[in-house]
Specification:
heterodimer, A: mainly alpha, B: mainly alpha, Helix Hairpins, 3 helices, 0% strand
């Protein structure tokens, strides 16, 4: 007789909503007349993300005391719930951004099914509490993303991006898996807190197997969060994938990879903190250096944003390396404006791409600020936010990250971060210059026949991202409180 | 060792697992055909599986074996997606050589 674990259905309700919606969208793909498919599937998917958002919000409210549920496979706490909230918000905006994206082979309903399934996997990933659920949910959302990257088989580069992401992503997952196997071999446990407990009980903190496993787990998560030196897939995949998919990936995948990295490191490896904090700080510095320097020479706006996302992985890893409560708070706070700015910036690129019908570069971005005032102002704000200017959440994000590093006593990380910010100004302001400060001769105004009509849904999404970016500056205290309560769930 | 096991020490299993994993990793990094690259990814996952199963016996609990079973299912779905992509690429008459997939200049 096998004893069945008690299942806390409420703790997994966001995943269940999204999975249900994914299944429904697949039925829509075959049972509903062709003209209705796209609208219905998109409506279902948006409803699913909205439902997941509400469920995660209630879960946040009712999980003040974190505890493992479902045979300790997942943990129900505010830390995971806040991660779910960000993922669900990203998904909802991604549906709005995707709606008018021309998918040439008509696989619209499948697209939304995959998007919802990827969201479900991410929501599961942020609550995963043992090495097995971490690996399974990582693959769950990764496989969905591989297909999403390649979904537009007629788009040049889309298939290539899908295959590249599949190969590099699976390589990273395999490294993570082997690392998990080594940690399991050293401790005999898969649960994160059990690993930590066994290590301290048996004095294993110098064990070779354990340390090798730890290094491989950090590497595997480094691939997913696209931090240097594991970032080489990022610019290619971001450039080749359909832009709405890129927007979702850049915001949501980075969020969950960093959140899970923090959870794994602090709950399973507190004894080895003196080692992994240094390793994570080194990865952060590498990401800041490589991301910012490589972005300087790019002309393609999607590639600039890809390298910018590498450098932001560096900023947020500083918060992970700090290994204290203020680091957890800084990471969780920063993820909110970062996700909004990233989604919004790629949404603006998507809008320009649809107008021009080709890849957006700094050259053909010229004059967009005057042609499309809302998108122009939004992009301007996102770029200043990425660079950490006041009046955007990016300012407090960087401020909190640096103060976490100071709390830790690592002032040198702050100096690296500030230097990286100074370098990044060049390319962020380069985008702003392209938007507004070109002479008349350089302007590439709308092609003959006039500009295509405004896209209400995409503009709504951009407006939403803009609102979050600015509101996270003015409402900094409530957001920091949310992040603080979530961070308390971790054993720091 | 918690269980009386007949057969080699766990370190031998680990050596074979690490060898398989390294073989797979080299294959991913060095081979050009996407099919062989997918095959090498599978070898990496199976190396990890062997380590999990050996450690499960060594530690005397079943968690590692369950994990390995789940990994097999994941590996299969990964290959399905990978092969689907390769078929789509060959339908588009692109060269099946990862070195020539450079529309996106990495």
């Amino acid at each position: 007789m096998i004893s069945k674990p008690h299942v806390d259905w409420f703790a997994i309700s966001p995943e269940l909503v999204l999975l249900g919606v994914a299944a429904l969208a697949l039925f829509v793909a075959v049972l509903v007349p062709r003209w209705l498919r796209k609208a219905l599937a998109a409506f279902l998917c948006a409803g699913g993300f909205l439902g997941a958002f509400v469920a995660a919000g209630i879960l946040y409210g009712r999980s003040a005391h974190g505890h493992p549920v479902v045979a300790d496979a997942i943990v129900r706490d505010r830390f995971g719930a806040l991660g779910m909230l960000i993922v669900a918000g990203c998904g909802l905006l991604a549906v709005f951004i995707s709606y008018r994206e021309p998918v040439r082979n008509g696989h619209d309903a499948e697209y939304y099914a995959l998007l919802a399934a990827a969201g479900a996997g991410m929501a599961f990933f942020v609550t995963a509490n043992n090495l097995m659920t971490i690996f399974l949910s990582l693959e769950w959302f990764s496989i969905c993303l591989y297909v999403l990257c390649a979904i537009d088989v007629d788009l040049v580069g889309s298939l290539e991006a899908g295959l590249k992401y599949l190969v590099v992503g699976s390589f990273g997952s395999a490294v993570l898996l082997f690392g998990s196997a080594l940690v399991y071999g050293a401790t005999g446990k898969l649960g994160l807190d059990r690993i930590g407990a066994t290590v301290s009980a048996q004095g294993l903190s110098r064990d070779v197997l354990l340390l090798a496993g730890l290094a491989m787990i950090i590497t595997g998560l480094g691939f997913k969060s696209s931090s240097a030196p594991f970032h080489m897939w990022t610019p290619d995949v971001y450039e080749g994938s359909p832009t709405p998919v890129t927007a979702f990936m850049s915001a949501a995948t980075k969020t969950v990879a960093l959140v899970v990295a923090l959870r794994v490191l602090v709950s399973a490896f507190p004894q080895e903190a003196h080692l992994w904090t240094v390793a994570v700080a080194a990865i952060a510095c590498a990401s800041l250096a490589i991301g910012n320097l490589a972005a300087l020479v790019q002309r393609n706006v999607k590639r600039i944003l890809a390298y910018s996302s590498v450098s932001h992985a560096g900023f947020m890893l500083i918060a992970v390396a700090a290994h204290n409560q203020s680091g957890a708070r800084a990471l969780l706070y920063y993820l909110v404006p970062y996700s909004a700015m990233s989604l919004g910036a790629f949404a603006v690129v998507a809008a320009r791409e649809r107008e021009l019908g080709r890849a957006v570069t700094l050259d053909n971005l010229a004059g967009m600020g005057w042609e499309r005032p809302l998108l122009g102002v939004a992009m301007f704000t996102f770029m200043l936010g990425f660079a950490g200017f006041p009046l955007t959440g990016g300012f407090f994000g960087k401020f909190l990250v640096f103060s976490a590093a100071v709390d830790r006593g690592w002032t040198w990380l702050v100096i690296v971060g500030v230097a990286a910010t100074a370098v990044s100004l060049y390319y962020y302001l380069g985008v702003v210059r392209a938007l507004y400060m070109r002479t008349g001769a350089e302007l590439q105004l709308a092609p003959a026949g006039g500009a295509p009509p405004r896209e209400a849904l995409l503009q709504t999404a951009v407006l939403g991202c803009l609102a979050v970016t600015v509101a996270s500056f003015f409402a900094v205290q409530p957001l920091v409180d949310l992040a603080k309560h979530a961070g308390r769930a971790l054993p720091l | 060792m918690t269980l009386g096991i007949l057969g080699p020490e766990v370190s031998w299993y680990l050596a074979v697992a690490a060898f398989l994993f390294a073989t797979g990793a080299l294959g991913v990094l060095l081979r050009r055909s996407p099919l062989i690259v997918l095959l090498s990814l599978e070898i990496m996952l199976n190396g990890a599986n062997l380590a999990l199963i050996a450690f499960a016996r060594h530690q005397g609990n079943g968690a590692g074996q369950i994990f390995a079973l789940a990994v097999m299912a994941v590996a299969a779905s990964e290959v399905v997606v990978g092969l689907g992509l390769i078929v789509a690429i060959s339908r588009r008459n692109l060269d099946l050589d990862v070195d020539k997939l450079r529309t996106l200049r990495g």
